[in-house]
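agent> call fold_tool(seq_1)
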Amino acid sequence: MHRFVDYWSGHGSWEALPNPQRIATAMRINKVTLDFWATLNDPMRLDDLADLAVPFRRVIFKEISPLIRFHCDARNHLKSGGNDLRERVCA
């Protein structure tokens, strides 16, 4: 849990949590695991959403995790006509 919380919330976040909040967070990890599994295994792809006309909000962070940066780069790569995400892994 320590590494997970620090990765997503910043270094030292786990240590800053009071013990009751650590326990409550740890009790929810199974749900988080299922959410990640569902996201990674969803059959819907970007092309499935291309024709939807929906509003969106772009959020710009001063600091961004490598995982989120990779996701954004990969999405932009596919949107610009790229087919193979392996190109983006090494970029």
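agent> call fold_tool(seq_2)
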Amino acid sequence: MGESKSPTATELEAQELEAFLRSVSRSVVGIVGKQNGEFGKGIGTGNLIQVAGAPHVLTAAHVIAGCSPDELRFIMPSPIQIQERSPGEKPCLRPTEIVPREPLHVKACRIDVKLDMAAIELSDIYLGFQNLSFREIVPAPPVPNTGDYLVMMGFPSEQKQAYGENYMVTRFVEYPMVVERGSRLLQDFDPATQFLLDYPASEDYDPAGFSGSGLWLRKEESGLWQPNPRMAGMFLGYYRGSKLLYAVSARAIAGLLCGSAS
């Protein structure tokens, strides 16, 4: 029998990224709200986090605008598959099952319009669900450096597919890179709490529906390698003319929800 070959550095990197995506997917939910007052038309993304040990869904405030907590519906995490790809290509997700939208037991909802942030507190029962991972947001990492690539997973509405008389949305993943503002004049951009990223799919589809998506990186730890996703920020909106995403930093989020980023 021939000797088994050790994976190459490229193969190891691909395997690590796939493990990271599977881990992130357990903390990402779709949110169904209103658009122009009509329920079921508004699609956004939320992230499962812990605040002082309590389970929350973190999203952009505009995703749930006009909805009471009992009106919101959620698309919960489900198993994912990684599409086949050529060496060097970033992984894409392939849905494996249709997941219905469903209500959750909501205890309270905190909204900050200035930061465009909403934290929906859930019943503690969800902490025991094995398919859900509620991420700690403190200590928050520093704002990512220019040139850093992050993982953004969400439910872009332009990728919806017809399903009978309705439609369904599935989770997609993109890999935006942090960029500098430079001399660009960007309305309402706040460099104290926000940062900018490019949008790799700008020529393919609009990022609407990614609103509220976490921007994830791996928490570096010594010892045995683990995926350990860590939120660096949350996507809020898109400057279409500049083809740039803007996001609120995890430090700003943690400072508001926990009183400190550390």
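agent> summarizing second result for user.
Residues 9-258 form a domain with the Thrombin, subunit H fold (CATH 2.40.10.120). The chain has one domain: 9-258.
agent> awaiting next instruction.
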